[in-house]
Amino acid sequence: MKIVSRNEELLRDALSCIPQPSSRTSLASCNKLIRFEDISAAAFKIQCGVQKTPCMYSRLSKQYGMDIYLKKEFLQYTGSVKERGVLYLLMSLPQDQQRKGVIVASDSNFSMAVAYHASELRIPVFVIMSTSTAPARVKMCREYGAMVISYGTAAKDSQVHARRLAQENGYLYLEEEDSAVYLSGLGTVGLEMYEQVPKLDAVIFPAGGHCGLLAGSAAALKHLNPHISIIGVESESFPVLQQSLKAGHPTEDQACNNHHFYGDVSGVCFGSNSLQLTGKLVDKVVAVREEDILISMLRLLEYERATVDAEGAIGLAALVAGKLPELKGKRVAVVICSGNLELHLLQQCIAHALTLDNRVCRFSLVISDCPGDMSKLLEILAREEARVLDIKQERTFVTSELFTVQVICTVETRDKIHTAQLRNALLERYPRTAWTER
């Protein structure tokens, strides 16, 4: 996996060719070799259209025993790193196709990036979304300047309709794939990180089905310094990339979850070119649990004031879970690539994360239904500095004895040690206290 010179061609890839007059309405593919110069050219061309996001030293470094730098790609205008590949893809289209317009069919970060940058480039853009799409996403795409059409109850219905409209009207149907143009745009993340953080030992990227960011950035970083360790992180629930690498071709995980929480980290591995590039240049791919992703989201919110989704938090989750002990004492960059999480999901994620982090706990106990007994319980909670979030009393269905009340209490604590102290204090006064296990 050693790169000999700066001009060495990295890997055979499929280039999204300039569309020629034909019956096809999607980007055609032809063979081309990705070179470091392609990524450099992309960086030059898109520099005025995307943010050069900061790669900042994190306060989480001391907690995990390494120098952690966070590449904050969620600060892009649409909240996603996908803007880099999309902008370069749109700018590479011939003028006649730019005049006719483009069409996409999904509610993904890719579609939102197409909606925004096509509008900025004055390219007519149409986004077909299913009727089950979250209203907030529909509104956002419209505000970016796209013509949004709701069609069908499933994503496949929207895709079929989009292809038909593209065929009938001459629009270019775009979908996220691993063309050389798109990968070169995404690879500019690797260039920036190399400039921003000297003497990097390792870089952690989100992986999963859509591994274009991992593949493109690996090409740039390994060319600049073959000794930088490139690590991909995906979900244990659907290790699509690991299965595909093992099989030697893109595979589909039957257990794949389409829940919006996971975004692009779930799904089918979308191309053999990214897969080959990943297999050649990526040093390690690890999988993390959903619980680790939630804790990672909580850490980023608290320590970095960064509100991110699962795709954005999954890289840090590998450190949270202790999956990379070999990085202790090293300089490590983590790409925080996406921050598009619906508000109701964000609320649920933080609530679950606090519980997983042993900072919100629930217990129940039975006390006599006499004046003063409830105040004694509250005095214990106050003395132990536990914050009461919710407290309920049940009298009618208490089966232990008459004239008693069951108290169900939810409290917030500082950490796991504080929770254990509170538990011991309650058991000392109320031996039959029952704790709700998470």
Describe the SSE topology.
Layout: E1 11-16, E2 29-34, H1 36-46, E3 55-57, H2 61-64, E4 67-72, H3 82-91, H4 95-100, E5 102-104, H5 109-120, E6 125-129, H6 135-144, E7 147-150, H7 155-169, E8 172-173, H8 180-196, E9 202-206, H9 212-224, E10 229-235, H10 240-247, H11 272-281, E11 284-288, H12 290-304, H13 310-320, E12 331-336, H14 343-356, E13 360-368, H15 373-383, E14 387-394, E15 404-412, H16 416-429, E16 434-435
Parallel strand pairs: 4-12, 5-6, 5-8, 6-7, 9-10, 9-12, 10-11
Antiparallel strand pairs: 1-2, 3-4, 13-15, 13-16, 14-15
Helix pairs in contact: 1-8, 3-5, 3-8, 5-6, 8-9, 9-11, 12-13, 12-14
Model description:
The protein is of the alpha/beta class. It has 3 domains: 36-80 and 180-250 and 258-353, Rossmann fold, CATH 3.40.50.1100; 82-174, Rossmann fold (3-Layer(aba) Sandwich); 359-435, ACT domain (Alpha-Beta Plaits). 41% of the residues lie in helices and 20% in strands. The chain contains 16 helices and 16 strands. The chain has helices at 36-46, 61-64, 82-91, 95-100, 109-120, 135-144, 155-169, 180-196, 212-224, 240-247, 272-281, 290-304, 310-320, 343-356, 373-383, 416-429; strands spanning 11-16, 29-34, 55-57, 67-72, 102-104, 125-129, 147-150, 172-173, 202-206, 229-235, 284-288, 331-336, 360-368, 387-394, 404-412, 434-435. The strands form 4 sheets. It has a 6-stranded mixed β-sheet with strand order 3-4-12-9-10-11, sandwiched between helices. Strands 7-6-5-8 form a 4-stranded parallel β-sheet, sandwiched between helices. The radius of gyration is 25 Å and the shape is globular. Mean pLDDT is 88; it is low at 1-31. Keywords: Lyase, Pyridoxal phosphate. Its cofactor is pyridoxal 5'-phosphate. This is L-serine deaminase. InterPro entries: ACT_dom, ACT_ThrD-II-like, Ser/Thr_Dehydratase, TrpB-like_PALP, TrpB-like_PALP_sf. GO terms for molecular function: L-serine ammonia-lyase activity; threonine deaminase activity.
